[in-house]
């Protein structure tokens, strides 16, 4: 189809390129767009979405491709609940987490919900409060812990974000940072959580409760925290982080722990 866009994965070892597109496309509507959303640490599994250019349908259905077998597994059901936004995979690709933006027609306009699926058992776990907008930050490498941020419409503080970590094994959800902050990323175990508040990026050790300042002005992406929280990758326009930073544009930095 003219103007269509699909995703590809290139294997630098074998030189092979695979197109990410399901063999059997759903027949509920037209599909012309494909976008990669995540790749597992072992490099075997890739999560991607397909959709079309009709309004907000650019990311309707989520799939996971097994690059070793070339097979695709559809993760989300039809009809779609909403637009699929962030997607994360466990290190072995067995577990997939995603969030969905659901248009509500209310004053807030949209409601985010977070889900996790164990691809081996086929069980889908709703992680977030169905009545509070939530966004996914990261999934631990073992697929056990989910980092997310929820903004409640009611108590304790309406409209104030709160980061949480949800343990899929125990079913417990605990705060992963102070109220008013947002979870950005975590290390492989989700023990070390990178937060953002008013532009600043602190790194929280959930076990000890210690906060380590990373930068007073910056942004970061998922997977920005290395194992054990030893280093954080972020972007900043600040000119005083390193010497002779005179280019006047955003740069990428690495902050290492002491």
Low-confidence parts, pLDDT < 50 over ≥5 residues?
Answer: none
The percent range for helix content is under 10%
Q: H/E element string?
A: EEEEEEEEEEEEEEEEEEEE
Question: Beta fraction of the residues?
Answer: 35-45%
Give a count of the beta strands, DSSP E runs of length 2 or more: 20
Structure explained in plain terms:
The chain is mostly beta strands. It has a domain at 1-79. The protein is built from no helices and 20 strands. It has strands spanning 7-10, 17-20, 33-39, 45-51, 61-66, 71-74, 83-89, 95-103, 110-118, 123-126, 134-139, 145-150, 162-167, 173-175, 182-186, 192-196, 201-205, 211-215, 231-236, 251-256. The strands form six sheets. A four-stranded antiparallel β-sheet has the order 3-4-5-6, with no helix packed on it. A four-stranded antiparallel β-sheet has the order 7-8-9-10, with no helix packed on it. Strands 11-12-13-14 form a four-stranded antiparallel β-sheet, with no helix packed on it. A hairpin with a 4-residue loop joins β9 and β10 (123-126). It is globular, with a radius of gyration of 19 Å.
Briefly summarize what is shown.
The protein has no helices and 20 strands. It is an all-beta fold. The radius of gyration is 19 Å and the shape is globular.
Features:
single chain; 258 residues; mainly beta; four-stranded antiparallel sheet; 0% helix
């Amino acid at each position: 189809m003219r103007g269509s866009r699909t995703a590809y994965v290139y294997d630098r070892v074998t030189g092979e390129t695979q197109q990410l597109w399901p063999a059997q496309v759903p027949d509920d509507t037209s599909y012309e767009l494909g976008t990669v959303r995540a790749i597992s640490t072992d490099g075997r599994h890739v999560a991607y979405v397909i959709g079309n250019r009709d309004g907000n349908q650019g990311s309707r259905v989520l799939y996971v491709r097994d690059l070793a077998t070339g097979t695709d597994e559809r993760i989300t059901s039809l009809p779609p609940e909403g637009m699929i936004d962030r997607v994360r995979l466990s290190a072995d690709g067995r577990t997939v987490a995603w969030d969905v933006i659901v248009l509500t027609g209310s004053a807030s306009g949209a409601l985010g919900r977070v889900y996790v699926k164990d691809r081996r058992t086929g069980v889908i776990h709703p992680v977030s409060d169905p009545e509070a907008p939530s966004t996914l930050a990261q999934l631990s490498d073992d697929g056990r812990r989910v980092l997310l941020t929820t903004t409640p419409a009611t108590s304790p503080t309406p409209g104030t974000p709160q980061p949480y970590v949800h343990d899929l094994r125990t079913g417990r959800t605990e705060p992963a940072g102070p109220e008013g902050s947002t979870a950005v990323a975590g290390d492989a175990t989700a023990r070390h959580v990178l937060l953002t508040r008013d532009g600043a990026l602190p790194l929280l050790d959930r076990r000890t409760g210690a906060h380590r300042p990373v930068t007073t002005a910056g942004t970061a992406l998922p997977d920005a925290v290395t194992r054990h929280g030893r280093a954080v990758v972020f972007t900043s326009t600040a000119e005083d982080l390193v010497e002779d930073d005179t280019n006047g544009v955003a740069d990428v930095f690495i902050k290492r722990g002491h």
